[in-house]
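User: Here's a chain of 285 residues. Predict its fold as tokens.
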Amino acid sequence: MVRVPSRRAFLHRVKPIEEQVILITGATDGLGRGLAAELAAAGATVLVHGRDEERGAEVVRELGDRARFYRADLASLDEVCRLAGEVLAREPRLDALVNNAGVGTTLPGDGERLESRDGYELRFAVNYLATFALTRLLLPRLIESAPARIVNVSSAGQAPIDFDDVMLERHYSGVQAYCQSKLAQIMLTFDLAEELRDRGVTATALHPATYMPTKMVVHAGTSPVSTLEEGVEATRRLVAYPELDGVTGAYFNRTTEARADAQAYDEEARRRLRQLSVRLTGVPD
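Assistant: Prediction complete.
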């Protein structure tokens, strides 16, 4: 059965940016760092996530007094859970969660198959399972803070998930690993939209821009096509622009609503992914 999720939920108005607390994963480099800078400059309180304490402190110094750093390696589900616990303990509100952190097709590993600390294929673990676990664990705070938004930074590069070989143990490709993890993010987005449409929280996903000059693009040997600023602006729009009030369950290519891979609209595939995610992460759906 194929079904397109409802796009518009409720009409609660987004809070003024200077009243918002926004968590951005992967905010010490690339798109995440650029987005953090833009939102902080506009007056938001930005929760900066990264793996490196020193780099995180550097970003917080740049952003000013309303920025706070949270360290976690998303290749470890224990650290993802710790991150969520720290945010819940320290932050009385959370107006937006931007799941931006990720690994590309060749970095790390130069295209070789790598595993997370939990023994899962690395790209699926970092790009998708960490997103699933962190989002599920932070949902209570997002709902309490409603209206709130979840924005998943995905990609136009998408590939259907082979549920008989999700970890790509038989035939590994860094491109396939990356693309299926990005489709999984969109599938999660659609499920969240349906679940939360009457609870004041929207969920959207986007391809922010094509081949921005980020580390993962440069390492893959690809020449940049878009500027980082283009990707930042497309993402910021979903996080904070009033014109997106109530828009949920949508995938955007930059600023234009687009069609994701067909598997994203397959309810049975999404059900199988949810069940797998709960089993692998131990985080209830």
